[in-house]
Amino acid sequence: MTGQNEPPQARIDEQADLWLAPGELASWLSVVRLMTRLPWAIDAQLQRDADLSMVEYMALAMLSEAPERSLRMSVLAENTSTSLSRLSHMIKRLESRGYVRREPDPADGRFTNAILLPAGMSKLESAAPAHVAYVRRLVVDNLSGERLRRLGQDAERILQRIDSPAR
After folding, report:
1. Does position 2 have pLDDT exceeding 70, yes or no?
2. Within 13 Å, how many C-alpha atoms sit on residue 83's CB side?
3. Residue 123, Cβ neighbours under 10 Å: how many?
4. What pLDDT digit, counting tens, does each position of 74-121 carry?
Protein backbone atom coordinates (compact mmCIF):
# COMPACT_ATOMS: atom_id res chain seq x y z
CA MET A 1 0.00 0.00 0.00
CA THR A 2 1.44 3.36 -1.01
CA GLY A 3 2.28 5.77 1.75
CA GLN A 4 2.53 3.32 4.66
CA ASN A 5 6.32 3.44 4.85
CA GLU A 6 6.67 7.05 3.76
CA PRO A 7 7.38 9.79 6.28
CA PRO A 8 4.26 11.85 7.15
CA GLN A 9 5.59 14.97 5.34
CA ALA A 10 6.00 13.02 2.07
CA ARG A 11 2.34 11.91 2.24
CA ILE A 12 1.23 15.50 2.91
CA ASP A 13 3.31 16.80 -0.02
CA GLU A 14 1.90 14.07 -2.28
CA GLN A 15 -1.67 14.97 -1.29
CA ALA A 16 -0.99 18.70 -1.75
CA ASP A 17 -0.17 18.04 -5.42
CA LEU A 18 -3.69 16.65 -5.85
CA TRP A 19 -5.29 20.04 -5.16
CA LEU A 20 -4.77 23.55 -6.47
CA ALA A 21 -3.59 26.21 -4.07
CA PRO A 22 -6.16 29.00 -3.49
CA GLY A 23 -4.46 31.39 -5.93
CA GLU A 24 -4.10 28.64 -8.54
CA LEU A 25 -7.75 27.71 -8.12
CA ALA A 26 -8.93 31.31 -8.51
CA SER A 27 -6.86 31.73 -11.69
CA TRP A 28 -7.99 28.39 -13.08
CA LEU A 29 -11.66 29.20 -12.47
CA SER A 30 -11.22 32.52 -14.29
CA VAL A 31 -9.71 30.67 -17.26
CA VAL A 32 -12.59 28.16 -17.22
CA ARG A 33 -15.17 30.98 -17.20
CA LEU A 34 -13.32 32.68 -20.07
CA MET A 35 -13.15 29.45 -22.10
CA THR A 36 -16.89 28.97 -21.62
CA ARG A 37 -18.22 32.49 -21.92
CA LEU A 38 -16.02 34.01 -24.66
CA PRO A 39 -16.99 31.47 -27.35
CA TRP A 40 -20.64 31.78 -26.27
CA ALA A 41 -20.49 35.60 -26.51
CA ILE A 42 -18.77 35.53 -29.91
CA ASP A 43 -21.17 32.90 -31.21
CA ALA A 44 -24.16 34.97 -30.05
CA GLN A 45 -22.78 38.09 -31.77
CA LEU A 46 -22.20 36.24 -35.04
CA GLN A 47 -25.64 34.59 -34.90
CA ARG A 48 -27.32 37.92 -34.20
CA ASP A 49 -25.40 40.05 -36.70
CA ALA A 50 -24.53 37.59 -39.48
CA ASP A 51 -26.66 34.46 -39.06
CA LEU A 52 -23.45 32.42 -38.73
CA SER A 53 -22.14 30.31 -35.89
CA MET A 54 -18.61 30.91 -34.66
CA VAL A 55 -17.38 27.67 -36.25
CA GLU A 56 -19.08 28.56 -39.55
CA TYR A 57 -17.37 31.96 -39.49
CA MET A 58 -14.03 30.32 -38.66
CA ALA A 59 -14.41 27.88 -41.54
CA LEU A 60 -15.26 30.65 -44.02
CA ALA A 61 -12.34 32.75 -42.74
CA MET A 62 -9.89 29.84 -43.02
CA LEU A 63 -11.08 29.05 -46.53
CA SER A 64 -10.70 32.73 -47.49
CA GLU A 65 -7.02 32.61 -46.47
CA ALA A 66 -6.24 29.27 -48.14
CA PRO A 67 -4.66 28.98 -51.58
CA GLU A 68 -7.43 28.96 -54.18
CA ARG A 69 -9.84 29.33 -51.23
CA SER A 70 -9.85 25.56 -50.86
CA LEU A 71 -8.91 23.17 -48.04
CA ARG A 72 -9.22 19.46 -47.47
CA MET A 73 -12.13 18.76 -45.17
CA SER A 74 -9.80 16.90 -42.77
CA VAL A 75 -7.52 19.95 -42.50
CA LEU A 76 -10.48 22.27 -42.00
CA ALA A 77 -11.88 19.98 -39.29
CA GLU A 78 -8.57 20.01 -37.45
CA ASN A 79 -8.16 23.79 -37.80
CA THR A 80 -11.68 24.44 -36.48
CA SER A 81 -11.32 21.85 -33.68
CA THR A 82 -14.35 19.94 -34.89
CA SER A 83 -14.84 16.32 -35.81
CA LEU A 84 -14.94 15.48 -39.48
CA SER A 85 -18.54 14.34 -39.04
CA ARG A 86 -19.63 17.62 -37.42
CA LEU A 87 -17.73 19.63 -40.04
CA SER A 88 -19.39 17.64 -42.83
CA HIS A 89 -22.86 18.54 -41.49
CA MET A 90 -21.85 22.19 -41.13
CA ILE A 91 -20.39 22.35 -44.65
CA LYS A 92 -23.60 20.80 -45.97
CA ARG A 93 -25.53 23.68 -44.36
CA LEU A 94 -23.11 26.22 -45.84
CA GLU A 95 -23.48 24.52 -49.25
CA SER A 96 -27.26 24.84 -49.06
CA ARG A 97 -26.79 28.58 -48.51
CA GLY A 98 -24.47 28.84 -51.53
CA TYR A 99 -21.37 29.75 -49.50
CA VAL A 100 -19.18 26.71 -50.21
CA ARG A 101 -19.04 23.63 -52.38
CA ARG A 102 -17.36 20.27 -51.93
CA GLU A 103 -15.47 18.38 -54.55
CA PRO A 104 -12.90 15.59 -54.70
CA ASP A 105 -9.33 16.72 -54.10
CA PRO A 106 -7.69 16.82 -57.55
CA ALA A 107 -4.35 15.70 -56.05
CA ASP A 108 -5.92 12.68 -54.31
CA GLY A 109 -9.53 11.75 -54.99
CA ARG A 110 -9.79 9.90 -51.68
CA PHE A 111 -10.06 13.31 -49.99
CA THR A 112 -12.75 15.97 -50.28
CA ASN A 113 -12.04 19.70 -50.48
CA ALA A 114 -14.26 22.52 -49.25
CA ILE A 115 -14.13 25.53 -51.58
CA LEU A 116 -15.27 29.03 -50.67
CA LEU A 117 -17.66 30.45 -53.27
CA PRO A 118 -18.10 34.17 -54.07
CA ALA A 119 -21.32 34.29 -52.01
CA GLY A 120 -19.42 32.85 -49.04
CA MET A 121 -16.68 35.44 -49.44
CA SER A 122 -19.32 38.19 -49.57
CA LYS A 123 -20.95 36.79 -46.43
CA LEU A 124 -17.60 36.74 -44.64
CA GLU A 125 -16.79 40.29 -45.76
CA SER A 126 -20.18 41.56 -44.56
CA ALA A 127 -19.85 39.75 -41.20
CA ALA A 128 -16.24 40.75 -40.49
CA PRO A 129 -16.61 44.43 -39.49
CA ALA A 130 -19.09 43.81 -36.65
CA HIS A 131 -17.23 40.67 -35.59
CA VAL A 132 -13.85 42.39 -35.48
CA ALA A 133 -15.33 45.34 -33.60
CA TYR A 134 -16.80 42.94 -31.02
CA VAL A 135 -13.52 41.03 -30.63
CA ARG A 136 -11.72 44.36 -30.21
CA ARG A 137 -14.21 45.49 -27.56
CA LEU A 138 -14.10 42.24 -25.59
CA VAL A 139 -10.42 41.34 -25.85
CA VAL A 140 -8.01 43.50 -27.84
CA ASP A 141 -8.92 46.93 -26.42
CA ASN A 142 -9.13 45.45 -22.92
CA LEU A 143 -5.40 44.61 -22.85
CA SER A 144 -2.23 46.54 -23.47
CA GLY A 145 -0.26 45.51 -26.53
CA GLU A 146 2.24 43.71 -24.29
CA ARG A 147 -0.45 41.86 -22.30
CA LEU A 148 -2.20 40.82 -25.51
CA ARG A 149 1.11 39.53 -26.91
CA ARG A 150 1.78 37.60 -23.69
CA LEU A 151 -1.76 36.19 -23.67
CA GLY A 152 -1.21 34.95 -27.22
CA GLN A 153 2.11 33.39 -26.23
CA ASP A 154 0.58 31.74 -23.17
CA ALA A 155 -2.29 30.38 -25.26
CA GLU A 156 0.20 28.95 -27.77
CA ARG A 157 2.21 27.32 -24.97
CA ILE A 158 -0.93 25.62 -23.64
CA LEU A 159 -2.02 24.57 -27.14
CA GLN A 160 1.38 23.03 -27.79
CA ARG A 161 0.98 20.97 -24.61
CA ILE A 162 -2.50 19.88 -25.70
CA ASP A 163 -1.28 18.99 -29.19
CA SER A 164 1.89 17.21 -28.08
CA PRO A 165 1.83 13.45 -28.58
CA ALA A 166 2.90 12.76 -24.97
CA ARG A 167 -0.33 14.02 -23.38
Report:
1. no
2. 3
3. 22
4. 999 999 999 999 999 999 999 999 999 999 999 998 999 999 999 999
